[in-house]
Each structure stands twice: as structure tokens, then as C-alpha cells.
Predict the structure.
Amino acid sequence: QVHLVESGGGLVQAGGSLRLSCAVSRGIFSMNTMGWDRQAPGKQRELVAVINSDGRINYVDSVKGRFTISRDIAKNTVYLQMNSLKPEDTAVYYCNADLQVLEGGRWLRNDYWGQGTQVTVSS
């Protein structure tokens, strides 16, 4: 069964950097899109960055120029490099993957979510 394994969150001062990783473990699959959402306390979850199978990338306006999403196809891993972090970036970050997964001889399309990783930016 497919799992998403996240790592890389933590506490950093404003202006600092963190890199999040999301690895797809197990299964035979093809990626449609992978990306990162975040949810801050008392706020709605928002899409931060997404990359699709063609390599096209989109970011929410608030992180453009500071965050970079990338992928390592050989490692089945997507990264989110976060630079110039601000206190308002504090949130739980969730990896999301829209995959075609081979199950029981059939290709099935499903959404998968990581467990979430806390990013805290102090002022």
C-alpha cells in the first residue's frame, strides 16, 4: 500500500531556511501531481506548491520567490525548499500526492496525504 513519508520540519528563526521531504513508499505508481499544503492554527488549509508529471509548478502568491518545489524521480521524492521564512509561514505542512497506483492488476487513481510536519518560524 502506498504511503507518504514526510520529514524536515522544525523550529527556525525568521529569515532562516528549512527543507521538507516527501517520499512515496511502496507500490507501483505513476505521479499525476505532488505538492504541499499547509494549515495554520485557526486558518483554512491552503495549497502552497504543486508539481505535475510534466514538471509544471505552481505556488501560492505568498511564497513565490522564497519557496522552491522539486522532485527526484529516482527516489520517488518531492522536496520543498523554504527560504526567507516568516512567522506567518508557521503551520503544519502536509504532503499530497495524486497518483495512479497499480492494485489488483488495475490502475486506480487516488489522493494520498502525509502525516504532516510542523514548521514553526519565530520572530
Summary: Residues 16 and 73 are 27 Å apart (CA to CA). The chain is about 0% helix and 65% strand. The longest strand covers residues 91-103.
